[in-house]
Amino acid sequence: MRGRLTVFLSILIAAIAITAGCLKGGNFVYSKGKSLSPGESLSYSFTGPVHLTVRVSSNVPVDVRIVGESTVLKDFGETRKVDAVVQLPKGKWKVIIKNPGEEKATLDIELKGS
């Protein structure tokens, strides 16, 4: 019984670590084929200072911005593709991706802090 509990806890800890790092709030985000309905948005948090690699591609134009609590650091505008490195100053920042159009967006997203 003790061996099974150890294995379960190990798997649980690994799953939490992978989810936290891969999906949101960690050093990177990677999502391929993510769907975004009209009017919906996604938000990914990062803490600076960090060099943030931003790669977003979409089948329809989406609005991509990097914002702080009271400022817009970088506005890529409505675009189908972003491939840039942005220096995030000290503080908390969010990469926000919004679908302003009338069609469903299919996104490939890679956000990586280094």
Q: Can you give a write-up of this model?
A:
With 114 residues, the chain is of the alpha+beta class. The chain has a single domain (2-113), classed as GOLD domain (Jelly Rolls, Sandwich). It has one helix spanning 2-23, and strands spanning 28-36, 41-67, 72-98, 105-113. Strands 1-4-2-3 form a 4-stranded antiparallel beta sheet. The radius of gyration is 17 Å and the shape is globular.
Based on the model shown, name its key terms.
single chain, Jelly Rolls, globular, alpha+beta, 114 residues
Write the layout of secondary structure elements.
Layout: H1 2-23, E1 28-36, E2 41-67, E3 72-98, E4 105-113
Antiparallel strand pairs: 1-4, 2-3, 2-4
